[in-house]
Amino acid sequence: MAEPLNSDVAQELNERNRHQHTQRWEELAEIVEVIFLAIVATATAWSGYQASRWDGRESALFQDAIAYRFRAESASDLGGLEVVSDSALFTSWLQAKASHDTALASEIAARFTPDFRADFDAWRKTGGLDATTDADVGFKPDLEGNPNVQQAAALRERSRVTFVLGKKADDVADRYVRNTVLLAMVLFLVAIAQRFTTRGLRIGVNGAAFLLLAFVVGNLVTLPRL
After folding, report:
1. 10 Å Cβ neighbour count for 59?
2. Across the chain, what does the average pLDDT equal?
3. Mean pLDDT of 113-139
4. What is the pLDDT of residue 212?
5. What is the pTM for the complete model shown?
6. Which of 54, 92, 156, 174 is the most buried (most CB within 10 A)?
7. What is the C-alpha to C-alpha distance for residues 12 and 9, in angstroms, rounded to an integer?
8. Residue 13: its pLDDT value, please?
């Protein structure tokens, strides 16, 4: 009778040890999964926050780019009108000069825009219409030197640069959103792993979740932040 009893006791102890080992493994797996979930929750919140911030920055930059473009067009229109006005006034000045109406010529010259007047005065100092050689007669004002024309060019460039920055902000926001989606996949894998009782399968799924989580965290660390 002693031998069967000893066999039953040994089997019971073996089953108990196996159960305890399985229980310890499951507890360890649950601890690892809780750590995964905590990291995912933190990373998801951070990624969503940054995506929202970069979306706001993108919107602000695009609005600034549009505003700079409108200001550039306004300055360009004003500069163009000033250039046309100066050209018409210069034609009138030439007519007054040809008629030897010095008073009218002086009054017309006083109405030139400052930058045109500077070129005009410099031309007059070289002799202007009173020059003795034809080479000195031609008046070639620097039309691109008009302040409004220059401002329009500067604003167009600023609009272009701001738009590029807006596109970069949009790209960063999209990358944060993609990382948020990948973090959701990590949650899915962890949830699936918890349903498996087979050790190898559970470890494999959690391993895939870990690799994906490491990839996402690496991306989040390298992305610019606001």
Report:
1. 14
2. 84
3. 71
4. 92
5. 0.71
6. 54
7. 5
8. 46
Q: In whole angstroms, what is the distance from residue 167 CA to residue 69 CA?
A: 16
Q: Which two tokens stand for residue 191?
A: 């949830």
Structure tokens, 51: 């995506």
Lowest mean pLDDT among 54-68, 133-147, 182-196: 133-147
Q: Domain residue spans in the chain?
A: 31-222
Q: In sequence order, which residues have a C-beta less than 8 Å from that of residue 113 and are 6 or more positions away?
A: 82, 85, 86, 146
Structure tokens at 190: 């962890």
Instruction: Read off the amino acid at residue 18.
Output: R
Instruction: State the CB neighbour count (10 A cutoff) for residue 146.
Output: 23
DSSP alpha helices (H): ranges in the chain? 2-98, 102-109, 114-125, 147-193, 199-222
pLDDT at 181: 93
**CA 141 – CA 118 distance, rounded (Å):** 9
C-alpha distances out from residue 68 to 3, 62, 122, 166, Å: 96, 10, 34, 13
